[in-house]
Amino acid sequence: MTGYDIFKEYLELRYSASTTRQYLWAFKSYSPNLRSQEELNVFVIDKMRKRGNNPFYNGFLKSYIDCFGLNLVIHPSKKKINVQEKTYKFLTKEEVDTIISGTSPYISLMTRLFFETGLRLRELINTKIDDINIVERTISGIGKNSVRFKVKYSRETADMLVKLLNDARNNGLVRPFHCHVNNAKDHAKSFHYYLRKECNGLGIPGVHAHRFRHALGHYLRAEMKFDLKQIQRKLRHKRLETTSIYTEATQKEVDDKIDKEVYGQ
Asked: What is the per-residue pLDDT across 138-161, written as a single tens digit (0 to 9) for each?
């Protein structure tokens, strides 16, 4: 396989068709000039720092480096940019349960799997039947940074998953979690469309697949009292700093805890 073919296969497993096309264009245009750290530094200055840290080029470079396992580092811009501190509004366990009980069977099952496994959208969407073990209750695959994973789900979800897998086999489908409504071509985008539509109907706006992953991390930390190392392992974070967002508490959480444990209300 050529470098282009390897990169194309890598992208198609992780990104939308639109992003894949754009990154392949960048690969054909720039990869001959990205073979050393010096060349990459020149690229960063020219394409990113001079253009306001355009996220497109940053995303392309990260994919390019990860795909080929290159020993290259993207040095961040030295420009000072005023950015507001990022805050997180986590879905609660009650909201997740409402989505599971109040949506269509497909959206409900996907929500269960996202919340129980912590899988990213395309990790689950692109799962093949052979990657699912009903007896062990596991899903295996290759995730971010080409790292293999094996995650577990509950017995209740396993019972629901059997029907989906049987339907997929009867219809000759390899990837059972693809969204086949209206002959969707970009299954991840189609899933998000129906997820948001059904969640909006429940009065829970702004829902997307990654929020279930955040909800799991927050639930394990705030309610189940998992330590950060355990959550890092569950969510497969490369750095513990990434997991540290689940130590943040909202003012409401602090007030509720004080009411309950200090004031006894």
From this structure: 999 999 888 899 999 999 999 999
The helix/strand count (H/E) of the chain reads as 13, 3
Residue-wise pLDDT tens digits, 35-48 = 888 888 888 887 76
How far the first Cα of the chain sits from its last, in Å, is: 66
CA 28 to CA 10: how far, in whole Å?
15
Angle between helices 105-117 and 187-201 (to 10 degrees): 100
**Distance of alpha carbon 149 from alpha carbon 33, whole angstroms:** 33
Beta carbons within 8 Å of 39's beta carbon, 6+ residues apart: 33
Distance CA 188, CA 18 (A): 12
Q: List, in order of start, the domains of the chain with CATH numbers.
A: 3-68 (no CATH), 93-250 (1.10.443.10)
